[in-house]
Amino acid sequence: MLKQFTVILLTIFTCLTTMAQTIEPEIATLYERHWEIEPGIYRVMKEGRVGIIKANGEIIVPCEYNQVWNLDDDGYFRVLKAGKAGVFHISGQIIIPAEYDQIWPFSEGLAKVLKHGKLGYFNKQGAQVVPCVYQQIWAFDNDKARVLKNGKIGYINSTGHEIIPCEYQQIWSFENGKARILKDGKVGYIDEVGNEVVPPMYTHIWAFEDGKAKALLDGQMVWIDESGTPLDLPVPENDYEQPSSTKVITNNNKEKEVLIEDEDGNKTHIKILGGDIVINEKGSDTYIEIGGRDRDRYRHRTRRFKGHYTGIEFGFNNYVTYDGSTSLPPDDSFMELNTSKSNSWAINALQWSIGLNRRGNLGLVTGLGIEWNNYHFSKDMILGKNDNGYIVETPVPDNRPMEKNKLVTTHLNVPLLMEFQIPTHRRGNPFYISAGGIGGMRINSYNRIIYDDNLDPHKQKKKGSYNLQKFRYGAMVRMGYRAINLFGTYYFSTLFEENKGPELYPVSVGLSIYLDL
């Protein structure tokens, strides 16, 4: 009991000591800025570069990176240097050098990396277990993953060894220890270690039953066993039936018709020129005719597709970090927004609709609109640039209070959406939902400031690019009924140019009033 009590006291003392650790003043003066990211651990900036130190000044990561992100639960964190990503451990060990285009979070002890368009994997000990030679790597399942290399499919294990070489056009899912394969246009089977248990020599193989299956070999139907060996069994019946007698004839009016006659004498006439279809079945006296009033009725069912994009939009703006969080890192906290005042307006003036089916309820929608985004900052500051051209906050002259401080952007937007319309009991007023991509070009941007005092200048409008992206692209979803619809957008491109501002991804949601212009 006494031993357990002593352990508890030591644990509490250690925690309090750690929490009490603050950066020493003489250490803080060595850096331009510092932020505490964990008890006793600080992110620091020196000459525009970022690093990590302990409270006593011990350097964990030197100040030579453009960005250093927060620690994850296991003490790993990403860094960015000259546009390339890497990973450190809080111990100071370089896990993944900063030379990769993208790094995904660790999952089951492995992190996927992208370099020169090819994928690979690192483990948490810093070893590259899978080299960056694959165009695609699917998720690991039972210690193996499907991979794509040079356009061919194979499998690797968690140590990076190709257990099935990348030489197949397709590999289907494994069932009962075997998977169907396609190689050089022929079908076969492999086992889980890559042995071709059924050689890829068949045009098609049907499902196995009782240890045998039908297969098509050089145009002939045969039986094969589970090793692919042809069996000495009667040839299976062909699943395909010979078509009825079909020919093209010329009737008395010198018009061409397709005549289909089966063995019972039932005839089908299809008139090629003129548009009439006549089906004559002697046995049941059944006649089907499309023409006259019937044809008009058929045409009436063909509806022209028209999408729902033009109109006026109002929404609310925000942005998220690379991991989808609205909570910004400490060094980007100056970009925090007053979300209730950060809004957007848009006028969608032009629309083009392309129908994809005869019912007119499925099609593509594109158009042209203009959008104004207002990012209303919650902090009194002025956007500026440091010596490296990176967007930072600059102090307000004479600490003047601010009534309004916002960044305003104007974009020309072009969407490409697929819209599906669901009929309702009200004719011509369907419920609709659409989704797709949206691209935009920035045509204006400025920082609008209104001071909350009686000094001059009371208002300022500072035009500039502020390192904002000239072009943006993202995804949009819309849904609605009649004139009212809801929309949401997420942009895959960052708000600022790469390495010239915080890594933030704009999002917006709002309401749109559809106008049939």
Residue runs with pLDDT of under 50 for 5 or more positions: 10-20, 240-244, 282-300
Radius of gyration: 34 Å
Mean pLDDT: 84
Strand % is: over 45%
Number of helices, counting only DSSP H or I runs of 4 residues or more? 3
The shape is flat
How far is the first residue's CA from the last residue's CA? 81 Å
Major sheet: 8 strands, antiparallel, barrel
Strand order of the largest sheet: 29-30-31-34-35-37-38-39
Class computed from helices, strands and strand pairing:
mainly beta
Into which percent range does the helicity of residues fall? under 10%
Number of strands: 39
Can you give me a brief rundown of this structure?
The chain has 517 residues and is mostly beta strands.
Short key terms for the protein model shown above:
6% helix; five-stranded antiparallel β-sheet; 3 helices; 517 residues; mainly beta
Structure description:
- This protein is mainly beta.
- It contains three helices and 39 strands.
- About 5% of the residues lie in helices and about 50% in strands.
- The longest helix has 19 residues, at about 1-20.
Fold blueprint:
Elements: H1 2-20, H2 25-28, E1 33-38, E2 41-46, E3 49-54, E4 59-65, E5 67-68, E6 76-81, E7 84-89, E8 94-100, E9 102-103, E10 110-115, E11 118-123, E12 128-134, E13 136-137, E14 144-149, E15 152-157, E16 162-168, E17 170-171, E18 178-183, E19 186-191, E20 198-202, E21 204-205, E22 212-217, E23 220-225, E24 245-250, E25 256-261, E26 267-271, E27 277-281, E28 286-289, H3 292-301, E29 311-320, E30 343-355, E31 362-376, E32 382-385, E33 391-394, E34 402-422, E35 431-451, E36 459-463, E37 471-481, E38 484-491, E39 505-514
Antiparallel strand pairs: 1-2, 2-3, 3-4, 5-6, 6-7, 7-8, 9-10, 10-11, 11-12, 13-14, 14-15, 15-16, 17-18, 18-19, 19-20, 21-22, 22-23, 24-25, 25-26, 26-27, 27-28, 29-30, 29-39, 30-31, 31-34, 32-33, 34-35, 35-36, 35-37, 37-38, 38-39
